[in-house]
Amino acid sequence: MKSNQTLLLVFLLIFIGCSDQSIVESNEATPxxxxxxxxxxxxxxxxxxxxxxxxxxxxxxxxVDALADAIASAGSGGVVLLKSGEHHESGTVEVxxxxxxxxxxxxxxxxxxxxxxxxxxxNPGLYVRNASYVLIRGLEILPKGDTGGTAVxxxxxxxxxxxxNTIRDHEFGIVIQQGDRTKIxxxxxxxSSGWLTGDLPVVDGIDIINGDFVEISDNTVSNTVFGIFAxxxxxxxxxxxxxxxxxxVILCNIPNEIIEPGGSVIGxxxxxxxxxxxxxxxxxxxxIGFLVVDGAxxxxxxxxxxxxxxxxxxxxxGDTERFGxxxxxxxxxxxxxxxxxxxxVKDCGLDSEVNGGIPIDTSSDPCS
Length: 368
Prior knowledge:
Blueprint: H1 5-15, H2 31-37, H3 47-51, E1 56-59, E2 63-64, H4 67-74, E3 78-82, E4 85-89, E5 93-95, E6 99-103, E7 107-111, E8 124-129, E9 135-137, E10 140-143, E11 148-155, E12 161-163, E13 166-168, E14 170-177, E15 183-185, E16 188-190, H5 194-197, E17 204-210, E18 215-217, E19 220-222, E20 226-230, E21 236-238, E22 241-243, E23 247-251, E24 258-259, E25 265-266, E26 276-278, E27 281-283, E28 288-292, E29 300-302, E30 312-316, E31 334-336, E32 344-347, E33 353-355, E34 358-359
Parallel strand pairs: 1-3, 2-4, 3-6, 4-7, 5-8, 6-9, 7-10, 8-11, 9-12, 10-13, 11-14, 12-15, 13-16, 14-17, 15-18, 16-19, 17-20, 18-21, 19-22, 20-23, 21-26, 22-27, 23-28, 26-29, 28-30, 29-31, 30-32, 31-33, 32-34
Antiparallel strand pairs: 24-25
């Protein structure tokens, strides 16, 4: 383990966990499932095409609390263009209808949201609520102070597309609740360092609370507790890079400890099930590159790369109390190392299938 790992484990034991799930389905992801996840049913259009649509509201550089009015003026199906430069918002901006929010190169959005010392409380900058096909593209999202709350939170917002954004110094980067077929593409997320100092209980990059057929692709996530947290079913997680996190990628279940902006307490409906996790690179994390745990099942991990992770590149966890309470075994997961011959794999799950890689000897390094 690296030098800070003991301290980080303490944080996790106190604040983080995964709860029991019993939902099991028999069929595996089919080619038609993969086509749905790849985005064939959703088209937002290029930025140039959007700006030529005739319904564009421009927000000039130096704006203060102008975004909500611009969203309202653009109307359903409209486009809001943040011009290159700084834009400042004094609190949460709600997005409640279909709209495209795009930034010119150099558009920086500062939002005054505060992190919380209460694990799991959502204090969003951009709050997409009860609206489908929302696009957020090309923004740099920064906090007003040292650390922000949640940069982007979507609730009951299917078919959202969040891409090519840069998010820095937030408690949570992107959080999805009831967001079927959401696509999170080519974002750069650098978390707040508060989890390393003990000022914050948890810092996450991308969290999927609930959402089927979610695609997470080509993102770079660093400096968090959990880089990418995948739950629910039949998602696609491909070509992402995670490093400098406690755990790079976790397929698990988010417990009923998330507090929405309205005060409701929510959690995942089921642990990560039937995800396709392929050609990602999770390296130089404090603990594990890819962790499959707490009843996560029937997932396929193929052609992923690791390297210099604190313990293992991939772990299929069995029954464990590593988070301070019991979580049940992962089961029926498959790992195919493919062309990555040097990836380490610890298999403690039930009915796992592992092909290739470097197996961890569980007789000398027992499952726990």
